Amino acid sequence: MAPVPTLISQATTPKDYRQDGARHIYKHNGHRIHKGQMPPLMHAVGVLQVDLDNLGNVRKINWMRAPSHVPDVMREIERTVLAAAPFPAPVRLGAVTYTDVWLWDKSGHFQLDTLTEGQRLR
Fold first, then answer.
1. Number of folded domains that form the chain
2. In a domain, 51, yes or no
3. Whole-number Å distance between alpha carbons of 33 and 46
C-alpha cells in the first residue's frame, strides 16, 4: 500500500501547480530567500523543469536553461529541489511536470520567478 501524502495540491494545470511548488521551496528555504527586489545584475538565472510523481516525489529534474557559467549554483539548485521533496502531491493531475525560473544573487540568496518581488533598476 502506497503512503498517503501529507501535503496535497489541488492544482488542475502545471501552471497552477507552479505556485504550490514555489511556495513549498520557499517554506523549506526561508532563510535563503532574497527579501525585496532582486539586484539589477543576477549572479545566475536558470530555468528548471521538475517532474513529480503522484505523491510529490521528484522523478527527474531537467535544465531548460542552465546557468552553466556557475556549475556550483546549478548543483545547489538541484540539491535544494531534491531536499524539499516530497512536494505537495498533485492529486488532481496524477503527476506533474512544472517549470520555474531561478533568480540567484551573489550572496547565495534566491527568488523564484513565480513569487518574485521584481528587480531593481540600476
1. 1
2. yes
3. 16
